[in-house]
Design a protein that fits this description.
Layout lengths: L1 H7 L12 H31 L24 H15 L5 H27 L7 H19 L6 E3 L7 E3 L3 H20 L7 H19 L1 H7 L9 H20 L8 H18 L3 H7 L1 H20 L9 H7 L4 H21 L5
Antiparallel strand pairs: 1-2
Helix pairs in contact: 2-3, 2-9, 3-4, 3-9, 3-10, 4-5, 4-10, 5-6, 5-10, 6-10, 6-12, 7-9, 7-10, 7-14, 10-11, 11-12, 11-14
Length: 356
Amino acid sequence: MLYLIAHYFQFEGLANLIRYQTFRAGAALMTALVIGLIIGPRFIAMLRIRQGKGQPIREDGPQSHLAKRGTPTMGGLMILVSLVISMLLWMDLTSPLVWACIMVTLGFGAIGFLDDYDKVKKRTTAGVPGRVRLAAEFLVAGIAVWLMAQTVDTNLYVPFLSNHYVPLGPLYYAFAAFVIVGAGNAVNLTDGLDGLATMPVVIAAGTFAIIAYLAGRADFSAYLGIPHVPRAGELAILCAGIMGACLAFLWFNAPPAAVFMGDTGSLALGGALGAIAVAAHHEIVLGVVGGLFVAEALSVIIQVAVYKRTGKRVFKMAPIHHHFEQLGWKESTVVIRFWIVSIVLAMIGLSTLKLR
């Protein structure tokens, strides 16, 4: 909105600052952060009143988690409210890439909200049936990928190799949709401890803010040998908004958590990261930067597959963060060490920009 207003006045005076994506990215981060901190207390109070007993806690999970009963969920709504306001204020909304990523963020958030609502209403940890949820996610992701394909090509670019790609053609639609859905559910599985998913999302968003900005610049992308995606730099503003909204949420989610983000937040944030990676043509790099999320998802897949086949467990409990809890690690120890892993993976992901 502010970008369009500044454009109307031809970016004269102070409005010239709004021309620059770096300025708007910083402004988006601060806007989302401030809004999140302001609405947080009242939002949490409202959720506590409406939900009563809060998010249902699994009886078969770590026994230490039973003390979290009564904590309200759906805190992801706080993230989405502050993020959407920030996006509407600072982003150039004329780009189809922007709308595709917004659609995934809000669409996955809506799916997660319905899942959270079903859990709270029925006092169960089951939620919406998995097949129904996945079908809805692939529908949203498929439409978003179709929108992106109007702007970007259907090649899969390989990191560490300059301008090397695999032309997927029509298969790219299925691959890109899988990346988005996989990212959404991987972050969802990671969100099992106070602050565990939030900070890695901030780190990944910060990393992709840099990647999207560079991919959107013809000069930088040519120098680095990465695919140039016109107007991808606007996605850096979305990434910055995600960072600000998540940092505000972390203020209230820090142990002991006053609120959980729930599927409303984790699905939306994971889907947003997946969509941004697809739009910036760095899908494989997302697997590196978001390696923690990948490990969490793989731990569940491996645990279920092996148990069904042999009746034995590979991990003491899945997702893998519960495995370390069962080994005797304190919750805060698991969270901080996983944050460190996320930072290291982000550095490796950024190194792919130059090592080509």
